[in-house]
Design a protein that fits this description.
GO terms for molecular function: acyltransferase activity, transferring groups other than amino-acyl groups. It comes from Neobacillus rhizophilus. It holds the Pfam family Acetyltransf_CG. This is N-acetyltransferase. The chain is of the alpha+beta class and about 90 residues long. It has two helices and five strands. It has a five-stranded mixed β-sheet with strand order 1-2-3-4-5. Strand 4, helix 1 and strand 5 form a beta-alpha-beta unit.
């Protein structure tokens, strides 16, 4: 669907110097990440890119054995609304 790439605590769509969408996180402690920012360009809005990025960060957290503190309002809303993501959520 979307080609989601990873670099330096960020998952993104687009090119490294020209990201069309991204979600970023900050590692905190050895078992938590803080999701602090989500961005989707106007050209990709309404196509499910933001949701795909949240899903990718949830999968990443599970693979790494991390819990998620979603400070970004968009990510927080997506994770709280989707019960299958609650296993990685710190409330």
């Amino acid at each position: 669907m979307f080609d989601i790439k990873k670099e330096n605590n960020t998952f993104y769509v687009g090119e490294p110097n020209n990201k069309d969408a991204e979600i970023s996180y900050v590692p905190t402690g050895k078992d938590k990440i803080i999701v602090d920012h989500t961005f989707v360009s106007d050209s990709l809005r309404g196509q499910g890119v933001g949701e795909a990025l949240v899903k990718k960060i949830v999968e990443f957290a599970r693979e790494e054995g991390k819990m998620v503190i979603p400070l970004c309002p968009f990510a927080k809303n997506q994770i709280e609304r989707n019960e299958e993501y609650h296993d990685i959520l710190i409330k």
